[in-house]
Design goal:
Length: 261
Amino acid sequence: MGVLPVPAEVRAILLDIEGTTTPIAFVQETLFPYIKDNVKEYLRAHWEEEECQRDVGLLRKQAQEDSSLDGAVPIPLESGSGEEELERVIQAVVDNVHWQMSLDRKTTALKQLQGHMWRAAYATGHVKGEIFEDVVPAIRKWREAGMKVYIYSSGSIEAQKLLFGYSTEGDILELFVGHFDTKIGPKVESESYRRIAASIGCATNNILFLTDVPQEANAAEEADTHVAVVIRPGNAGLTDDEKSYYSLISSFTELFLPSST
């Protein structure tokens, strides 16, 4: 796709993760299946721990809120002791998690349990965060040129740090100045990018945002943030209008920084 010059006023590069730094397949074929395949074993191993009980409590509260939804799975309280009763409750939690994931829900309760499970999986080496091979060398060059690099993802900041802390390229957290998740606002709302700029301490037009999702690019652009849409294997296709409207890159190496001459 050639070279994309970065506007001289840009001081910070804001990166999406899924489909930008990391293959979508890693999330869909590694991270999510790990939860489905291991949630029962994880709950059995950690059931007595305070953190696990907090996670289950949040899931139970969410299940109560979801009770009117079609197919909702309730999570009962333990009504006694004994292995059989414990298995009954754990199975209900497992069924609830599977139901939420089948609907691709992003509830805080589900994300919290997933985050704790992934933390254990990364720490034990069962999972390593996949990074496209052009990402780390390019970010190192950007940093050497004085550019600040941030992450903005719908995944929690904890999940972001796990992915980059236990990645196929080793621990690369030092490359990022900061992280943002949807606590600062949804990625498809322009106000989120204004809040990020305020948090960084710059104007919105001092930021270049890289994402694979046109709706996110549009929201950033509405806030006067520079954008480029990233084309990666496995990403959703773009319409002809989107291809002609947005600046496109297929590798981070295609960004040309004026200060790197």
